[in-house]
Amino acid sequence: MAIVLSTPGPAAADEATDGKDTTYYISLGDSLTTGYQPDVDKDTDVAYTDQLYAQLKQRTPGLKHIRLGCTAETTESLINGGKCDYPNAKSQLDAALQAMAQHKGKVAYVTLSVGANDILLNCVSRPAGTLDGACLNSKSQTMAKNLAQIAGALRQAGTDSTQFVGSDYHNPFLAAWLQGAAGQQAAKESAPLVKAANAGIAQVYKSTGFKVADVAGAFSSDDFTTQVNVPGAGEVPANVAKICQLTWACTMQDPHPNADGHKVIAGVFAAQLTENDAPGAGGSPTPTESATPGAGESPTPTESATPGAGESPTPSEPATSEPGTDTGSNDPKPNGDLAETGASSSTPVLAGAGLAVVAVGTAAVYFARRRRTGEES
Questions:
Q1: Number of Cβ within a 10 Å radius of residue 272
Q2: In 3D, which of 306, 29, 334, 311 has the Cα closest to residue 153?
Q3: For 219-254, what is each residue's pLDDT tens digit?
């Protein structure tokens, strides 16, 4: 069921009521931003975006959250739409640009986590589970170009008082370490692949004036040296211990962060969103050209949607709920709540970064989580 968010009229009234103290946090991205949890098979309010908002609101009391994340989003669908429905907007990016135009000068923070699904949802052959190297190379380049367009459009729509942060990704393939010698080799081989992908993501963000939330670093993704005792597993490398403690990869074979993982991610973003460091103050480049790792040409980010077209979402006060509440399917909503978007209740969809592969020779370790619906057993 489509939910009409609002019209510009109530937005103006809302801001008039709250006065100059009203500011906004806009969050965009995939299931990392929606708090998908496999134990309830739903998007929830444990998402790092919700936890980050709670932290930011403590130092910015008038802050409101425009929560636009969409489970299963790719860089392409974030630009063009197709995964989630945004009333009066064609895509997640379009909705964000409209909101930024409507609240020009009042958007304090913008966060973005997207890109993993571009590769992970496209480059695995089934049922063999093998990784297509040519597809991987092609999708990586396309992902970087799209990400540059997204970040560039957002950066251009902001002001000098808007802070922008994008994230890289943790490495869920480290959980294979627990599967014996072959799994340990797979875990080791996954590290440079994920590191290279994250380097490309970080390069795009930096070139478009975004700061980078180093999620991989916070999860100790490259630390095979430090040994940590994990109950039931014994001594394992620190990066394996972190992936088991902060995600569902070791318990449910699902790569999504758990509530503790989202708390860590929120902390990484909060560290970048400092009170006295506005974007542009540190010599952040104007997003005119953005390097694409592995590509011969640098794409120029352009806005894929025109801000102000149609009706813009209007933030309202966020509803309160217990952390981890099963809030149903994802609905990009301006007040931090979740509601209905995306596929119908009878259509299963892949949940966020729920499809992942790591090359082991010609084979792959394959994580797949399908989002159950009321009509599925």
A1: 19
A2: 306
A3: 999 999 999 998 888 999 999 999 999 999 999 988
